[in-house]
Amino acid sequence: MTRLFASREALLAGVIALLLVLIAFRFPGFVTPANLASVFNDTAPLIILALAQMIVILTRCIDLSVAANLALTGMVAAMLNGMGVPLALILCGVVMLGAAMGAVNGLLVWKLDIPPIVVTLGTMTIYRGIIFLISDGKWINAHQMSDGFKALPRIAFLGLPMMSWIAIAITLGFAVLVGRTALGRSFFAVGGNPHAAVYTGINVGRTQFAAFVIAGAMAGLTGYLWVARYAVAYVDIAGGFELDVVAACVIGGVSIAGGMGSVGGAVLGALFLGIMKNALPVVGISPFWQLAISGAAIIIAVAFNARQGRAPGRIILKEAA
Amino acid sequence: MSILRKALTTAALASVLLAGAAQAETKRIALVVKALGIGFFEAAAKGAEEAAKELGDVEIIYTGPTDTTAEGQIEVINALIAQGVDAIAISANDPDAVAPALKKAMDRGITVISWDSGVAKDGRQMHLNPSSSPLIGNMIIKLAADNLPEGGEVAVLSATSTSTNQNTWIAEMNKVMGNYPGITVVGTVYGDDLADKSYREAQGLMQTYPNLKAIIAPTSVGIVAAAQAVTDAGKAGQINVTGLGLPSEMAGHVKSGASKSFAIWNPIDLGYAAATIAYNLSNGATAEAGGTIAMGRMGDVTLDDNLEGAMADPFVYDASNVDEFASIF
């Protein structure tokens, strides 16, 4: 199992390297270390949310409300900043608010047994609606935010902005969570075979709830980072970003049917998409082709994963159930 | 109910007749807006008051529903008909839904014009657009060129590749490029009106064209994102971000130097022009295709076959006036 994962990640890393070589042919400036660092920094929110989405998908759920959660917590963060709340409190606040919104998703899935795609489709719209209610549809702009609020993601430390370091720290945190804790292992157990998981004493609903809460907290944190980085908050920020997040997971080899995936895969999937997004504007491809190329890359990556995903182990588990 | 309504109508008619006698003294012009409490329209009302002061014999009634619905506006229009106002200048929530009520008003001899957001042709005597596509197309390149006396490379950051407004403006811009020698448009990219994609596209422009001197973004999301990208790249002052944006959203970026100037319609001028046109039409001027109507200090408006006219070039905002307007809209 681990060897399969390792090879899949190696394959994706190879594809990314090939992609970089191809881009370098058309635009050599793209592969300079400084630019690669800026691409990584730009991809940081996608990495954080792809990891969050991964643990939700591992438990056979999906969270379509991450982008709306991000937008709402981002708006709240900007509003709190406008009221003069200190940054440390805002950071705690957004993580807790995000977790609370994730908990709403989790409770509906756990206690009412509603399919996660329906729950999060609903809460996605509700959260966007709440942004409109609290903001009155108005924007919060760069000059209405304090300098400290906007500066945190940009502070450079050892050559990388703080936003990149946060993404790295969260990646390490998820690696420990998924690989070294009972909760992390139960995500796999619940997704791989829920019935067997029950027999081993794992509460399936509560595990899914935990995944949603963690995903929500991450979306909340990203909400602050997003708003501080782009220095603007309004109803539609990160519109459609939930689909990028799911795409990053799928490209990274996280099985949409649950139970399979890895931290490295999700990060590489996010990086792949991030490189595509940053490279397309500079390689001089007509914007009319860019969407088609992004889409084709996703389908090719997924088709590849689907072929690789036919591991005999899974089929035996299915029959055992 | 119908008796009451009849009585009210009679009373209204009577008041119209009575008002007819007093007409020579003051014209009552109603400025009907999409909803009360919106900064843009409050500013337009300020402009209308300015017109009233200038004209002398005008009373402005600033009114509208509390939310942006056509039903609310119809109620307001009916109340204005009952009050027997001389003219109605409306920014409509729905071009067709308010037309019958406005037709009724015109039948009673009330002058009706629409401004900002238009009404179907048979529901008004003329429509005043804040600007026109050729004027906007010319303005966005002029804003870039004015700050580049020696010429240079500029790029366009648009909304989506299919958005009609932006494509029309860019096409109009390309038509007048000959008037700006030395300025070359090196590329057009699309930020899809998403802050993150626009930011990334602006970064891409800066990388692809190291000699880039200006980014023109004729979209309010794009101009803000591009200004932030330029600031983050440490190029504020070297690359000028310009285009169409709102003063409240751009104030910070003008201060940081990322944007020297940008444009959008001026709601004060718009309210002023609407009130003046309504006054002139009510005093005997006629609205006909190809004809012109005076707008006081804003000059004359020329009407097309659809009885629509464009007020003026978009208004330019820079460090000298952006703060004053940032509190308005």
Largest sheet of chain A: 2 strands, antiparallel
Tell me how many strands of chain B there are: 14
- At the third CATH level, what is the topology name of the largest domain in chain B? Rossmann fold
Q: What is the helix/strand order of chain A?
A: HHHHHHEEHHHHHHHH
CATH class of chain A: Mainly Alpha
Q: Structural class, judged by helices and strands of chain B?
A: alpha/beta
Protein name (chain A): ABC transporter permease
GO molecular function (chain A): transmembrane transporter activity
Membrane topology (chain A): Multi-pass membrane protein
Organism (chain A): Fertoeibacter niger
Tell me what you see in this structure:
- The complex is a heterodimer of chains A (321) and B (329).
- Chain A has 321 residues and is mainly α.
- Chain A has a single domain, classed as ABC transporter involved in vitamin B12 uptake, BtuC, CATH 1.10.3470.
- Chain A has helices at residues 2-26, 33-58, 66-82, 87-111, 116-135, 147-151, 162-180, 182-192, 194-199, 204-230, 241-251, 263-279, 287-308, 312-320, and strands at residues 156-157, 160-161.
- Chain A has a two-stranded antiparallel ribbon.
- In chain A, β1 and β2 (160-161) form a beta hairpin.
- Chain A is globular, with a radius of gyration of 20 Å.
- With 329 residues, chain B is α/β, with parallel strands linked by helices.
- Chain B folds into two domains: 2-130 and 267-313, Rossmann fold, CATH 3.40.50; 133-264, Rossmann fold (3-Layer(aba) Sandwich), CATH 3.40.50.
- Helix content of chain B is 44%, strand content 20%.
- Chain B is built from eleven helices and 14 strands.
- Chain B has a six-stranded parallel beta sheet with strand order 2-1-3-4-5-13, sandwiched between helices. A four-stranded parallel beta sheet of chain B has the order 7-6-8-9, with helices on both faces. Chain B has a two-stranded antiparallel sheet with strand order 10-14.
- In chain B, α2 (39-55) crosses α10 (267-282), α3 packs parallel to α4 and α7 (195-208) packs across α8 (220-232).
- The two termini of chain B are 43 Å apart.
- Mean pLDDT of chain B is 87; it is low at 16-23.
- Chains A and B meet through α2 of A and β7, α7, α8 and α9 of B.
